[in-house]
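Sanity check

After download, print the first record. It should look like this:
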Amino acid sequence: MGITRSTKMTEAKTYWSTTERGRKAEDKLIESPYDIESWGTLVREAQGHPINSASIMYEKIVKQFPMAGRYWKLYIEQEVYFIFLHSALLYLGTNIGHWLLYVERIVFANFPYKIRICFGPLIILIFLHIFPKIL
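Expected structure tokens:
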């Protein structure tokens, strides 16, 4: 007679997600790897993470759904945004004049005139609050 051993691991499960909702989605994906709602929950959470941690989740979803252009697009957009922001930080450095010119030319160029007039100063204040280390 053989010895029976439990195949269940006693180690704690590690989650990529930092929220309870995301952890539940990860648990659902173990049972049903094609659950779109669970993947959607994790992708929405990944959009709020820096690309170095979000890329883990994006790699998993494009591996699971390699023909889903929607997920590839989200992944590429976040990668490009990170590369653009990183190169802007390297190029503009700590000169506040360069940053204000950057905000005026790049960010405000995409807004209609009425929005620029009404919310322009507010957007600059928010931008300066988000990136205080560059000042």
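If your output differs, re-run the checksum step. Summary of this record's structure: Residues 1-7 have pLDDT under 50 and may be disordered.
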